[in-house]
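Re: that backbone. Tokens:
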């Protein structure tokens, strides 16, 4: 059955101030402010107040448009989307409808081992509504409204219905998030959120919209659920009606909100209080030159320059800090060693702790220094893994961690330990000499015990064999 999915993603931009007033943008504050403290007459929608466009949000919107291969419109206009709800005090939301900021771009994703282009239909700038809190849950005693969120700058990125599975939707959203982080317009480690609405239709059925999905993992879950629901409806002979549903992440289900209203119901009119946005060539070429190397180009370069496998390169570029850490390490040690540790055990440990590299407090120098110790054979791979775990827990450099937890490979005088062990275990030695191969494992074990696991098992075995050979030669 053919599935068509399109996504509309709302991204809170990491600007200092709000979209149409000078109030502080709470999404970029380290602490959650008291409700209704970051407000003014404009974001409270008081009569007579006048909006002004945030230049930084405009620049960030344009940067995004350029990075997503869109054509930036010579003129874009703001419109009023009329609706009545307590989260929008002036009874309309300022958005872009008739003339958006940019159109017709694309993002490349990985799908089933192939590259696929997902077309971007449009990008528009708008303001976030306020936050409503249902006390005692939906249908509870009352609703509280926090206008701090009202007016946070958003960009909405709308795709064509090019995605053909929940997994593709997930891969698109992860890619989009990493591009936005590379651009510095969105910061996933801040309070800023990225929320998507998904439009999904199964062959022959009507389009259903699922709202309020945060994050790439959730989009896959929500869509999987919704497809199953629609398929089972169809199999029971029911038709799929056009409707709007809400994703409930706690229950893992989509729930009916309302039968779908059409865009005309919002009664869009042009916003008379704001001037059109007309980005000049100078501004656009300036912004173009500010765009950094993006994930796709970085991935290609990593494959070319460091001879990495495509999968490893892909994993390293998904987070900018990880990509930069890799390059830091690859200049000092073998790129393969750096790549496999960073894309492997380090990323796994960060995920396990639910941390990005930046949030972990680890320093590039620490990781590089640990990996060069590993490369020089000063720490075993097992102990290097323990060191990474402890570095994340204790936020200390590897030298301290290794010392404190005794993880280093000490200069052990193996031959004297081996001599002692052989003397104590004459029986095992005779067994081994009379052809019982297995006896050597026992001897290796004894040496490991004697050295408290700090020696390398392979080296110990070699040392034992060497000692036995020497004895044979010496004996008359
Ligand atoms: Zn304000």
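Recovered sequence:
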């Amino acid at each position: 059955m053919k599935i068509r999915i399109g996504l509309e993603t709302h991204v809170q931009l990491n600007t200092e101030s709000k979209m149409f007033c000078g109030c502080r943008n709470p999404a970029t504050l380290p602490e959650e402010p008291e409700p209704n403290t970051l407000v003014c007459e404009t974001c409270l929608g008081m009569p007579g107040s006048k909006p002004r466009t945030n230049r930084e949000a405009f620049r960030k919107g344009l940067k995004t448009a350029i990075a997503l291969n869109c054509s930036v419109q010579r003129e874009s206009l703001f419109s009023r989307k009329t609706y009545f709800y307590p989260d929008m005090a002036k009874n309309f939301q300022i958005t872009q409808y008739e003339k958006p900021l940019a159109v017709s771009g694309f993002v490349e994703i990985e799908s089933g081992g192939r590259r696929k282009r997902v077309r971007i239909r449009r990008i528009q700038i708008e303001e976030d509504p306020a936050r409503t809190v249902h006390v005692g849950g939906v249908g509870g005693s009352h609703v509280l409204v926090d206008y701090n969120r009202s007016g946070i700058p958003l960009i909405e990125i709308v795709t064509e219905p090019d995605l053909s599975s929940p997994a593709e939707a997930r891969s698109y959203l992860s890619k989009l998030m990493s591009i936005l982080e590379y651009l510095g317009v969105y910061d996933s480690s801040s309070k800023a959120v990225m929320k998507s609405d998904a439009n999904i239709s199964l062959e022959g059925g009507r389009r259903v919209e699922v709202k309020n999905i945060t994050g790439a993992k959730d989009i896959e879950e929500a869509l999987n659920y919704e497809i199953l629901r629609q398929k089972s409806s169809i199999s029971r002979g029911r038709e799929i009606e056009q409707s709007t549903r809400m994703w409930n992440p706690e229950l893992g289900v989509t729930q009916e909100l309302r039968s779908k209203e059409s865009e005309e119901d919002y009664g869009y009119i042009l916003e008379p209080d704001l001037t059109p946005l007309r980005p000049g060539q100078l501004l656009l070429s300036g912004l173009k030159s500010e765009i950094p190397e993006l994930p796709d180009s970085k991935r290609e370069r990593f494959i070319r320059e460091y001879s990495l496998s495509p999968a490893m390169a892909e994993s390293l570029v998904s987070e900018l800090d990880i990509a930069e850490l890799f390059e830091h390490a690859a200049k000092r040690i073998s790129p393969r060693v750096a790549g496999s540790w960073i894309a492997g055990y380090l990323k796994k440990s960060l995920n396990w702790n639910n941390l990005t590299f930046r949030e972990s407090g680890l320093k590039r120098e620490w990781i590089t220094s640990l990996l060069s110790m590993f490369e020089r054979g000063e720490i075993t791979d097992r102990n290097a893994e323990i060191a990474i775990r402890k570095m994340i827990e204790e936020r200390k450099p590897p030298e301290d961690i290794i010392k404190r937890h005794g993880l280093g490979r000490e200069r052990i005088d193996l031959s004297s330990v081996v001599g002692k062990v052989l003397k104590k275990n004459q029986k095992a030695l005779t067994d081994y000499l009379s052809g019982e191969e297995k006896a050597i494992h026992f001897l290796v074990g004894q040496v490991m015990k004697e050295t408290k696991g700090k020696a390398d098992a392979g080296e110990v075995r070699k040392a034992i064999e060497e000692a036995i050979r020497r004895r044979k030669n010496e004996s008359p």
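The chain has a mean pLDDT of 91. The pocket of zinc ion is lined by residues 18, 21, 23, 39-40, 42-43, 151 (CB under 6 Å).
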